[in-house]
Amino acid sequence: xxxxxxxxxxxxxxxxxxxxxxxxxxxxxxxxxxxxxxxxxxxxxxxxxxxxxxxxxxxxxxxxxxxxxxxxxxxxxxxxxxxxxxxxxxxxxxxxxxxxxxxxxxxxxxxxxxxxxxxxxxxxxxxxxxxxxxxxxxxxxxxxxxxxxxxxxxxxxxxxxxxxxxxxxxxxxxxxxxxxxxxxxxxxxxxxxxxxxxxxxxxxxxxxxxxxxxxxxxxxxxxxxxxxxxxxxxxxxxxxxxxxxxxxxxxxxxxxxxxxxxxxxxxxxxxxxxxxxxxxxxxxxxx
Amino acid sequence: xxxxxxxxxxxxxxxxxxxxxxxxxxxxxxxxxxxxxxxxxxxxxxxxxxxxxxxxxxxxxxxxxxxxxxxxxxxxxxxxxxxxxxxxxxxxxxxxxxxxxxxxxxxxxxxxxxxxxxxxxxxxxxxxxxxxxxxxxxxxxxxxxxxxxxxxxxxxxxxxxxxxxxxxxxxxxxxxxxxxxxxxxxxxxxxxxxxxxxxxxxxxxxxxxxxxxxxxxxxxxxxxxxxxxxxxxxxxxxxxxxxxxxxxxxxxxxxxxxxxxxxxxxxxxxxxxxxxxxxxxxxxxxxxxxxxxxxxxxxxxxxxxxxxxxxxxxxxxxxxxxxxxxxxxxxxxxxxxxxxxxxxxxxxxxxxxxxxxxxxxxxxxxxxxxxxxxxxxxxxxx
Lengths: 287, 382
Fold this sequence. Notes:
The structure holds 2 protein chains of 2 kinds. By secondary structure, chain A is an alpha/beta fold. Chain A has 12 helices and 8 strands. In chain A, the strands form 2 sheets. Chain A has a 6-stranded parallel beta sheet, with helices on both faces. The longest helix of chain A has 26 residues. By secondary structure, chain B is an alpha/beta fold. Chain B has a 7-stranded mixed beta sheet, sandwiched between helices. Chain B has a 3-stranded antiparallel beta sheet with strand order 7-8-9. Chain B starts with 6 loop residues before the first strand and ends in an 8-residue tail after the last strand. The interface between A and B is large, with 113 and 125 residues. β6 of chain A pairs antiparallel with β12 of chain B. Chain A: Pfam families: CoA_transf_3 (PF02515). Chain A: Belongs to the CoA-transferase III family. Chain A: One of its GO terms (biological process) is bile acid metabolic process.
């Protein structure tokens, strides 16, 4: 497996860290999850492929145990607010002096610095502070966080796996570990770079919830069926839209596509400069 | 940088592939984006740090050019439906016979196999087929896709970067490349493993939109402020919930129990009425610096000016004065260094790239006159 022989020490926390460590375990790493004595069960439910060690880090001798583990490990993954590990005498300077090859991954909501770095928060807060939440939600409603998927798992856990893999790869050349500041505010923003990059384009010219991708378009949304279930429609390109209309048996609706949503917005999405141009530039893509 | 010296060939497509390649470029890889001649501009807008080669892959001589590029590259990233590359004589068997170290990444919606694998689709379709869309959306409304972030970018582009990094790392041991089937249906499902793992728990015992994490709870949602802006509340733990109540000027003994789900609709109305009395700035004055888990819902414009982002330098500006998020995560020794330059024009680097890859001047001229390639070194305004 890709991560054969890689040793990971994961300090137990909620969603993001456990998911990150589970991915590493899935791809072959040996993951040790360090939990507090007295914890009843792994609340993350993401313990697949891991082994569990119950250890009291707050005791100096407990911290010393962790130090010994890290001296022989490849990756340490810790989810605590900035300063907590340092207080336990387990900060990167100490652990990387013991083991210069150690990759010290710090996965938090707000990051290792900045005015919010010592505050509590959850996915919805990080999503809000990233700017991304402001774009998500129906017309006339408040912004809506899609469960805890975007900040906890995508911008958080998965982005941290990325950082760890970058560091592991780089270490094959330099022989050295690094400190990774993986935080959910920045991770979620970076994941959503497309939003900033297209901010001035017609893709977002209407208010929230009235654009193609955020629920404004009749051809990019979900519909309820007779049995109370749902179908998803994503027919953006004209040739796919035609098939949608055909399938719905409503050929007259074809005319409405010009008025339903800004033509300019669709053109921006598809790089078709004039409505009369056949989108043959996408012929290869949609063969 | 982490990916110094890694050569990536990206075949142009929409969102997921371009994002994947941009991340690789941000972290130091040299990325060549191969676009169709006649393309007006890079619709993905995710061309940062890349160079552009305009090449007609449908012509056998064009496919042959790509074959020569891949013989000397580390990663090929292609976004086409299953079978397209094979038809062009550019499938993995051929390219990896030329170059056994090549990492052949195939990033699609539905994957390389399966009954949907040759169909068209978009983010919302992949999200729907993954099962994840069915969990997202308010009570009494249809499921709602959060833009194209979950399937295109998280389960798609980012998951593909992960696969490529796994393969690059593995190659340092085996010396061999691999074929990666990165598809958005499976990527989004895997990203959301937590949902399956907690499916039987009380986290999801109520219908969609009535649970803690999907908009049911008054302490995990957004509220409108007096100035038409929004605040986000995420005060799950009792000690944080206490601080929320305090900051709202309410008394917990006058309120139902935090976890009394039957009272949530009423609580939401109560909280909404309180939030509506003050502006976003006033709420920030009250809640900033506390553990109440109450934060402003910043707009894309506001976030670049917010203290926290400013202090951290979370946003970067390029030579065109456009701002975008700095690459994440931060690596202490080999940080990503995103390009400061504007995105390339289509075909801007065609000749320079071919020259680097060992094509002679005569070959390049011939390819140009036969319209196999296009060179737009100096571009007039579009």
